[in-house]
Design a protein that fits this description.
Blueprint (H helix, E strand, L loop, with lengths): L2 H5 L4 H17 L5 H14 L5 H37 L6 H14 L1 H7 L3 H4 L2 H7 L4 H29 L4 H37 L9
Helix pairs in contact: 2-3, 2-4, 3-4, 3-9, 3-10, 4-8, 4-9, 5-6, 5-10, 6-9
Length: 216
């Protein structure tokens, strides 16, 4: 069933809870379609007065901030072994190349990597756990996490809601276009990160010294 059609069958409180839960779990480090669920719920709020866009944006922001914070705590406690476990569990998302690319982003941008990572589909699941593994000071992480979560969740909700209100006459068509655009954006960002991860893995292999067998 279409995500928006399913959300249309449940009460407003359930919509808020589903959005907060999915985004929170995704931010914790488990790959879920948080952006698609948020876009669908924001479109739903533009059609039904029962779903308040302000409450929806607040719930999405809370889910993002709390999920990232839990991910940070898990990453700080689990350390490198956690990344290795995630790599085995989710090889398409937590491969060595992806982790290396994310680590370089953190080393270069620091807390800004947490902020801007919120807007990149694949990096969204990295921010919390990786910041904990790298032992970023929590106050820096929390500041970037809060600002990124509010701007991403609140901004996405506001934009999709107002576009949906303006385009009410052709909203059914736009709902598909909005979801397709969200999916394409997520896939594009994933391909960019995956390409960088491949380059990072190739560079790492090239930098490793060749082992010479010992003479008899």
């Amino acid at each position: 069933m279409h995500v928006q059609e399913w959300l249309d069958t449940v009460p407003a409180t359930a919509v808020y809870a589903v959005v907060a839960l999915v985004i929170g779990v995704e931010s914790l480090g488990i790959p879920l379609p948080g952006e698609i669920v948020l876009v669908s719920a924001a479109l739903l709020s533009s059609q039904h007065s029962d779903v308040n866009p302000v409450v929806l944006g607040a719930c999405a922001s809370i889910g993002a901030v709390v999920g990232d914070s839990i991910g940070y705590a898990i990453g700080r406690r689990g350390g490198r072994p956690l990344l290795a476990w995630l790599g085995k569990r989710f090889p398409r998302h937590f491969s060595e190349g992806h982790v290396a690319t994310a680590e370089r982003s953190f080393e270069k941008w620091g807390m800004w990597a947490v902020f801007f990572g919120r807007f990149v589909a694949l990096l969204r699941i990295f921010a919390g756990p990786l910041a904990g593994v790298l032992r970023m000071p929590y106050w820096k992480f929390l500041t970037a996490n809060f600002l990124g979560g509010v701007v991403w969740a609140g901004g996405t909700t506001a934009v999709i809601y107002y576009v949906g209100v303006v385009a009410e006459s052709w909203l059914k068509k736009f709902s598909w276009l909005g979801l397709v655009a969200a999916v394409l954006l997520g896939l594009a960002s994933m391909l960019v990160v995956r390409r960088k991860a491949g380059k990072a893995a190739a560079q790492r292999e090239a930098a490793e010294p060749e082992t010479v067998p010992a003479a008899d």
